[in-house]
Amino acid sequence: MTMDHAFYIYTAYIVTFVLIGALIGWTLLDGHFRKRELKVLEVSGIRRRSARPKREGDAP
Amino acid sequence: MIALYLRDLKLAVRSGGGALIGVLFFMTVVAVIPFGVGPDLNLLSRIGPAIVWIGALLATLLGLDRLFQADRDDGSLDILLMQETPLVLTVFVKCLAHWTASGLPLVIASPLLGLFMNMEPLAIGAVMLTLLVGSPAITFIGAAGAAVAVVLPRGGLLVSILVLPLVVPVLIFGVSASYAAVEDPAPFLPPFLFLVAITLFFAVIGPLAAALALRNSSD
Amino acid sequence: MIALYLRDLKLAVRSGGGALIGVLFFMTVVAVIPFGVGPDLNLLSRIGPAIVWIGALLATLLGLDRLFQADRDDGSLDILLMQETPLVLTVFVKCLAHWTASGLPLVIASPLLGLFMNMEPLAIGAVMLTLLVGSPAITFIGAAGAAVAVVLPRGGLLVSILVLPLVVPVLIFGVSASYAAVEDPAPFLPPFLFLVAITLFFAVIGPLAAALALRNSSD
Amino acid sequence: MSDTSIQTTRLSALANPTRFLALAASVLPWMAGITAILFAVGLYFSFTTEGDYQQGMTVMIMYIHVPAAWLSMMCYTVMAVSAIGSLVWRHPLADVSHKAAAPIGAVFTLIALITGSLWGKPMWGTWWVWDARLTSVFVLFLMYLGLIALNRAMDDPSRAARVSSVLILVGFVNIPIIKFSVDWWNTLHQPASVFKMGGSAIDAEFLRPLLIMAIAFTLLFFTLHIMAMRNEIWRRRIASQRRLAARMAAKG
Amino acid sequence: MRLLADDLSARRGEELIFRGISFGLSSGDAMVLTGPNGSGKSTLLRVLAGLLRAETGTAQVIEAEGAEPRPVREASHYLGHRNAMKLELTVTENLAFWRDYIGNFAGGEGIDIEHAADLVGLTGITHLPYGYLSAGQQRRFAMAKLLVAHRPVWILDEPTAALDADADAIFARLIETHRAQGGLVIAATHQPLGLRDARSLVMTGFEYDELEARL
Amino acid sequence: MRLLADDLSARRGEELIFRGISFGLSSGDAMVLTGPNGSGKSTLLRVLAGLLRAETGTAQVIEAEGAEPRPVREASHYLGHRNAMKLELTVTENLAFWRDYIGNFAGGEGIDIEHAADLVGLTGITHLPYGYLSAGQQRRFAMAKLLVAHRPVWILDEPTAALDADADAIFARLIETHRAQGGLVIAATHQPLGLRDARSLVMTGFEYDELEARL
Ligand code: HEM
Ligand SMILES: Nc1ncnc2c1ncn2[C@@H]1O[C@H](COP(=O)(O)OP(=O)(O)OP(=O)(O)O)[C@@H](O)[C@H]1O
Ligand SMILES: Nc1ncnc2c1ncn2[C@@H]1O[C@H](COP(=O)(O)OP(=O)(O)OP(=O)(O)O)[C@@H](O)[C@H]1O
Ligand SMILES: [Mg+2]
Ligand SMILES: [Mg+2]
């Protein structure tokens, strides 16, 4: 069999690769930035109530 | 319920000018196509039913997005939502009123446009009949979109986008029934009955979805 | 003035979803057409320019009627009217913002749609050019209509009678210029220049009429 | 009696966002790893399998086209199920789920569209025809975009979720149309041949890479979906904590 | 007739606005909600009217001893910040529409439109389009809407905004009449309404550091 | 700076609402319009703001002795029943827009947005969309709009509707500050605003037998 339609095949694979790569990259980057923002908030002392360390005198 | 129907009709006539703008837009669409196709009367009469249907579809979209928004803005929607009468029914009646004010005039105007497009009398009749049966479906689907648009301050275009994909089957069967009436081999009844079925289907689904959206979006 | 322009743009983007929506809307309209007229590529490419122009007209009309009404309803219009800056200028800027938000994306998206409609590159270019030049005219005419609609609580009828007939020439010259670019005997330039002239004319007349109507609003 | 109550606690435990995050953290590396391996194997097979006597090497496009097309529909189905979750149980995780799935579905649909046209050019001689299958997939793509736009246009997330749920459910009619369009209207497109009554109509030769790729795509989808859900949960927590910070500052 | 609210809490956006509000009212009672701007008065009223879903809790009316409880919204008039009247229609058309659409609740009758206009002190201008009225006149006719269809529970959000002293008195009289006929009134307000022995609920707003979002 | 209203009269529809109103105010003055619902307070304010055409008479400001008289509207802020803010935009965006669009009038400077939010008692929520605020919070920010761009004349139509007692006091303070800086205030109201030695104009509504339609 000859590679009679190589152009179409390779374009299809490349396009798929690029699109999926972009999707993965975007998801990872998004997660990365969100995690960093959470860190910043954490440092400035703002936490969810459930994640807050129990202070003395707090009702159990 | 009759009170609601009458009020919405009155409002449409008094403030929207809904009927006329729809009909005028419809005519504009139909008037412009011949420029594209050229003065080929045969071709015109061939694509006639399709053009009339597309025109009607687009004309219905004008103003549909405000179906519930006007009521939200002045607080009426709150009261409509509170009643014991099922919300689906209220939505259904509002759709009917909207259709009477803006869909029906299109149906009535369609023979005129058929003449413009050089269609045969039989074809004109078929288009009118299919429009009469099919155009309420557009309103019902549109109602679901309009209910979603209530939460968006200016939902106009978004509504149309959400609505148009769903309208496609109506268009397909409406147009093919119109063609079937004229062309010999194809039978008219099957697509026409399908169109009726679609309208009935959306007459249930549309208001249901709209009611669900309204209940979930009040604030 | 720039503040006004930016605000109106922001509003359009925030609540309508912005440029993406316009393009999406356009794409849905174009996607619906083949269902009506059938998948005949030749025919599609012939009616292509007309369809693209009609889509643009519809997209502009949707939401245009609320151009001033939204501002009236929340009281902003009062403050816009009170300022020392000439009202015509304010109206003009609002039109520009509306066009940027809803007309420009269509112009930019039109080549894509041309491809969908199987049009030749030359025709695509011509449609894009005529749209770029002609679509602002629709906004300007619409602005006058929108202003009348604000002033008269029952101005609906008047608006439709006012706007659509005035828009028809724009549409006709736009479409015929696009065809002239492709078909040999007809020259492209005359209808195109006419289109330019119409746009310039309405760029002056539209805001003037709108400002006049707004100033005379009596409550 | 006691059985059901245990089950419900387990289910609700999974549905707790914090637990979900913990679970995601422990599962994600594994899923990502398996996905990568499956892709490697699948690609190896697809590049080594001989071509079809009729279609030549273009069958290679099938190995991405068909899984992407399946996934585009499955993603919508997942969204529809989540939509029921947000409407009926009003569960925040369901809200997050369908919001996070929409962009992924849009990408898969776009891949199906592009590879489909790239396959259509050599096979049918045209990039695009307006037939029922192709158009309904295009409509699906538009619906994904519309849903994304709707979610972006509203800033109260739970309200946005409920409203888009309604639309997702209404739009679900499109899925059977896509699936059965080839049977209902005669078109250029292939009818279903992999899953068919009475066994597959495709040669085992092609079936192997196709199935491996399909599983790989499915795993990829779930991996990305869980990651996107996690991101969305973080995003909402950040937003609410920022609001809280602002209010605390305002109170002095 | 009794109205029972049990452990109500509500969110706006992602934030809890109030929590654990319970009360019971019976025929002839009135309750006044007060509290600073943004403390959640309107939110509570909308929850009672069924326009916002409560995060927890229920609000129901029980028509008579042993009757099936029903959602408050079906027994209520709600008068919010917006008047729910169409500017394009005349006052009569507006009121007639609501009378026909809302209908009477069991055990009462709405009064005639002209009579209702009399009671709010605006005889003779019911033929005007609603949009032609002044702010206070519009508000008065919105009150007339409460009279043309009978509902035992009135839920009122700042009813006297835009009213003059005269109308304030008229309004207090309307409420007293309604109570005397066995009606129930719940009103949010910043101004004294002049009601006899009304109960009062002071909203304080939520402590912000207790806020917990849903995720 | 002086504001001169001379023989103003106005129609609504076909009916004369008031006739022959003249007054003059100078820097630091305040005038309170009172009167029953429908007596023409809002109409008069809209005539002053140039939003309704006067049937007869003029209203002008004179910036300094000998300066050219200018229409009142160019020197004024108008705060009507509606807040003129977009629900979709955040508070900051709304205020920034009006600051930039209105601009400052000669002889004064608007203050910073955050500072204005402070002054109306709502620090820290300027990043929220306006539509997320309660009625009273919305009204407070509408007042903040008066501060971000400088205008010597404030025309206020029932400014304190929907405000709590706290906000009433804040508002009175804002007006006093504005007057102390040489500003002018004209307000229509049904409630006492708590202003020091304000002039007052009582609208009585037109006597009905004096009514004349324009034929
Ligand atoms: C843009 C164009 C195309 C689109 C949108 C499209 C879409 C789809 C979809 C949605 C499916 C899944 C259907 C199902 O599971 O029942 C599918 C499957 C398939 N497509 Fe396409 N397709 C396109 C072009 C093509 C072309 C050009 C070919 C080959 C000549 C092709 C061959 C196939 C095959 C063999 C399957 C598998 C059918 C099965 O076994 O179920 N497609 N396509
Ligand atoms: N848009 C309008 N068109 C016609 N007539 C109007 C319009 N607006 C108000 N009117 C009439 O003008 C008169 C004065 O109205 P205006 O709004 O000035 O009263 P007001 O003193 O502000 O009353 P309120 O205290 O209720 O606000 C009223 O009798 C009203 O019916
Ligand atoms: N549509 C909304 N979306 C999100 N948050 C809202 C919305 N409406 C109100 N809120 C918030 O809910 C809280 C309570 O608002 P609510 O309207 O119940 O207050 P209120 O007590 O009626 O105040 P007011 O006296 O000003 O009318 C406010 O902090 C406000 O910011
Ligand atoms: Mg309130
Ligand atoms: Mg007034």
Automatic annotation (TrEMBL), chain A:
The keyword Cytoplasm does not apply. Its main location: membrane. It comes from the Bacteria. The keyword Cell membrane applies. It is a single-pass membrane protein. InterPro entries: Haem_export_protD_CcmD. The chain crosses the membrane at residues 6-29. It is found in: Cell inner membrane. Keywords: Cell inner membrane, Cell membrane, Cytochrome c-type biogenesis, Membrane, Transmembrane, Transmembrane helix, Transport. Belongs to the CcmD/CycX/HelD family. Required for the export of heme to the periplasm for the biogenesis of c-type cytochromes. This is Heme exporter protein D. The lineage of its organism: Bacteria, Pseudomonadati, Pseudomonadota, Alphaproteobacteria, Hyphomicrobiales.
From TrEMBL, chains B, C:
Coiled coil: none annotated. It is found in: Cell inner membrane. InterPro entries: Cyt_c_biogenesis_CcmB, Cyt_c_CcmB_bac. Signal peptide: none annotated. Keywords: Cell inner membrane, Cell membrane, Cytochrome c-type biogenesis, Membrane, Transmembrane, Transmembrane helix, Transport. It comes from the Bacteria. Belongs to the CcmB/CycW/HelB family. Required for the export of heme to the periplasm for the biogenesis of c-type cytochromes. This is Heme exporter protein B.
TrEMBL record, chain D:
The chain crosses the membrane at residues 20-47, 67-89, 101-120, 132-151, 163-186, 206-228. The keyword Transport applies. Pfam families: Cytochrom_C_asm. Keywords: Cell inner membrane, Cell membrane, Cytochrome c-type biogenesis, Membrane, Transmembrane, Transmembrane helix, Transport. Residues 12-189 form the Cytochrome c assembly protein domain. It is found in: Cell inner membrane; Membrane. It is a multi-pass membrane protein. Required for the export of heme to the periplasm for the biogenesis of c-type cytochromes. Belongs to the CcmC/CycZ/HelC family. This is Heme exporter protein C.
UniProtKB/TrEMBL annotation, chains E, F:
Keywords: ATP-binding, Cytochrome c-type biogenesis, Membrane, Nucleotide-binding, Translocase, Transport. InterPro entries: AAA+_ATPase, ABC_transporter-like_ATP-bd, ABC_transporter-like_CS, ABC_transptr_haem_export_CcmA, P-loop_NTPase. The keyword Chaperone does not apply. It holds the Pfam family ABC_tran. It comes from the Bacteria. PROSITE patterns: ABC_TRANSPORTER_1 (PS00211), ABC_TRANSPORTER_2 (PS50893). Gene3D superfamilies: P-loop containing nucleotide triphosphate hydrolases. The keyword Metal-binding does not apply. SUPFAM superfamilies: P-loop containing nucleoside triphosphate hydrolases. Residues 3-215 form the ABC transporter domain. Belongs to the ABC transporter superfamily. This is Heme exporter protein A. It comes from Rhizobium halophytocola.
